[in-house]
Here is the input.
Amino acid sequence: MDIQNATALVTGANRGIGKAIATELVRRGARKVYATARIPESIDIAGVEVLALDITDSGSVAAAARAATDVTLLVNNAGVSTFAPLVAGDLADIRREMDTNYWGTLSMVRAFAPVLAANGGGALLNVLSVMAWLGYEHSNGYGASKAAGWALTNGVRIELAAQGTQVSGLILASTDTDMMASIDVEKNRPEDVAATAIDGVAAGALEIIADDQSAAVKASLSGDPAEFYSGFAQAR
Ligand SMILES: NC(=O)c1ccc[n+]([C@@H]2O[C@H](COP(=O)([O-])OP(=O)(O)OC[C@H]3O[C@@H](n4cnc5c(N)ncnc54)[C@H](OP(=O)(O)O)[C@@H]3O)[C@@H](O)[C@H]2O)c1
Here is the structure.
């Protein structure tokens, strides 16, 4: 993917990782960057085209696909985390995570697949999470939505291969944004995650691992889960 020739659209570009990705795309000289958000007035990035977009609203998604017909790189970044546990958490929170992180992302993929095809195939980047690969108290509804997003990413990669669309997933752990403001752990900088993400897309990587923590969790998947989760319990 040639970033300088790309016309990108980033969801949730008003803050956090989405803002960092849109800013980095402008910095690298992308031809055009559509920065989108539920409240477009909240976007503060020089050099972008602003679009209103709520990924859980099918009318809004369809309107964005009609407006941005020149997109060659779609970045599905928008997401929510409610920290609801699966067993005792509020079902409305768990559904909101699935509605946004899974159904919203799928809605964007379906709306923009024909746009990408018409523009030569292009690329699609889904911002996932290391939580797709592990259980963790208070993040399990979120983790399930990101695991669904991971399966979606792998699935649409196959479905869109014939039209030449490169489909990548970004896996990351803790990054310093509003989403993680209440969690006191070591965090990556959104700017670094954005740079790694765009390097990965440019290099044609299908899975982009943004940090050592995510790489360690991925490596653990080939082992006995009992080993991984006992280490986890000791660390608490
Ligand atoms: N921060 C981390 O440690 C971390 C780790 C792993 C993965 N991630 C993933 O990274 C992505 C970005 O998260 P972040 O950390 O930057 O979180 P954030 O600071 O909370 O930002 C979330 C963004 O998603 C947008 N959004 C939420 N629902 C939306 C909807 N229905 N339609 C359009 N936009 C919507 C928000 O817009 P509003 O301003 O309108 O709410 C905001 O721009 C998410 O997919 C998240 O799951 C983050």
The pocket of NAP is lined by residues 11-12, 14-18, 37-39, 53-56, 77-81, 100, 104, 127, 129, 172, 174-175, 177-180 (CB under 6 Å).
